[in-house]
TrEMBL record:
Gene3D superfamilies: SGNH hydrolase. Residues 1-20 form the signal peptide. It comes from the Eukaryota. This is Uncharacterized protein. It comes from Absidia glauca. GO terms for biological process: phospholipid metabolic process. GO terms for molecular function: phospholipase activity. PANTHER family: GH22081P-RELATED, PHOSPHOLIPASE B, PLB1.
């Protein structure tokens, strides 16, 4: 079982020690033999059983500013690169979760393509709006730049209605996976007393659970794939390192780094309150995942994938050179690989901390692996 578990695509498996040594590439993963019988329930899904992908989240999921800029006037500062988003983009040749799934079956309905102008939810009050979507690019990528957990209802209003209009998508019968990652803006709002009451751990948990219930009521046969919150605060020490010439908009001056404007918590001395909040958001997510966990015979489940990403391990160019707040394409590509690997890791095999790895490998989907990783469902040895 150990061997099967650690077999990675693109690696010459001379010995298990070499698993970081060669270039990662899903295309070298062997195809799956098509199933002869349909999956018996939600605990029995392989990636090639999932026909529809959706996503909920914020500017990271929207792919905002990931391509960086060449000057402060570069229009790329105003774009969301939806087709390159790590968990839901499917531009040709993009290194993304949907394209990894595409390797095993040709059609992945719902993933977003192309780029469009950024529109942000105004953090003052709830002003995310469905007019922000471009349905022919976004498809089921419901992420909105600036969104917090209390905006998930607006996002779902779009995603659940859009789902009914995608040709060839069978809402009742297709297996679906909706990936949700939210909480970075919530952490950033927590230091501002005008907003802090809306982003407590309890509020966050209630907002995510309300989203889960809405999905359950309108989207049968669905995995809600929740990627946990991480310490956003680490972007400050990473980008403020002395000697760095990166994302400093004016005169190479670190006080002009845009992440300071984008996150009201930056001035907080050790950022401990933000980090503690991220940890308590994750506790809420665990409670929700346990409440809605996959049942034998069931067709709906929430799974929690811990995402203790150590941003301090990032090379600086894994962040966008525009603001050192959003991941760059390099950051997204790495996140795509870990999001893919998360699909196969049972909870007791998840890495405690994710450190950036330029040679990050992707796991093969195998005949035996299933995407719900409770230990019970993990393939026996
Ligand atoms: C995993 O992929 C590698 C190629 O990258 C292949 O050699 C190996 O046989 C695959 N393992 C399984 C169990 O599919
Ligand atoms: C806190 O929020 C208020 C109201 O939205 C805003 O006017 C103010 O600039 C914020 N303060 C900081 C430090 O971001
Ligand atoms: C997140 O922050 C907490 C508190 O500062 C720290 O204990 C933890 O190790 C951090 N997580 C990662 C992945 O760096």
């Amino acid at each position: 079982m150990k061997l099967d578990f650690y077999v990675l695509c693109g690696v010459a498996m001379l010995a298990s020690k070499v698993w970081g040594a060669s270039s990662p590439d899903i295309s070298s993963c062997p195809a799956l033999t098509p199933r002869t019988t349909p999956p018996k329930d939600i605990t029995d899904l392989r990636p090639d059983d999932i026909k529809v992908l959706g996503a909920l989240g914020d500017s990271i999921m929207a792919g905002y500013v990931m391509m960086g800029v060449t000057s402060s006037l570069d229009p790329k500062a105003l774009e969301e690169f939806r087709g390159q988003s790590y968990a839901i983009g499917s531009d040709a040749n993009a290194i993304t979760l949907p394209n990894f799934m595409n390797h095993y079956q040709p059609i992945k309905k719902g993933s977003s393509v192309g780029t469009h102008f950024v529109t942000t939810c105004n953090i003052i009050g709830d002003s995310c709006s469905q007019s922000q979507y471009r349905p022919n690019q976004d498809y089921l990528n419901g992420a909105l730049s600036g969104a917090m957990a209390f905006n998930l209802q607006v996002e779902l209003g779009y995603v659940l209605s859009r789902m009914k209009t995608i040709s060839g998508l069978d809402v009742q019968n297709d297996w679906k996976m909706i990936t949700l990652q939210i909480g970075s803006n919530d952490q950033c709002a927590s230091c501002n007393t005008s907003h802090s009451s809306k982003v407590t751990a309890e509020q966050y948990g209630a907002n995510v659970e309300a989203a889960v219930q809405l999905i359950q009521s309108q989207s049968p046969k669905t995995i809600v794939n929740i990627i946990g919150a991480f310490n956003v605060s680490q972007v400050f020490p990473l980008s403020q390192q002395s000697g760095l010439k990166y994302c400093r908009m004016t005169n190479n001056d670190p006080s002009t780094i845009k992440n300071l404007k984008e996150c009201s918590c930056h001035a907080d001395a050790d950022h401990k309150s933000m980090d503690d909040l991220a940890a308590s958001y994750n506790q809420q997510l665990i409670t929700i995942a346990n409440k809605y966990k996959a049942q034998p015979g069931g067709t709906f489940a929430v799974v929690y994938r811990p995402a203790n990403i150590n941003i301090m391990s990032f090379p600086i160019d894994a962040l966008s050179n525009y603001d050192c707040f959003h991941p760059s394409q390099k950051g997204h590509q790495w996140m795509a690989k870990i999001a893919w690997n998360m699909l196969f890791l049972p909870s007791n095999k998840q890495p405690g901390i994710y450190n950036f790895d330029a040679n990050q490998q992707v796991m093969n989907s195998t005949q035996k692996r299933r995407t719900i990783h409770s230990f019970d469902h993990f393939p026996p040895p």
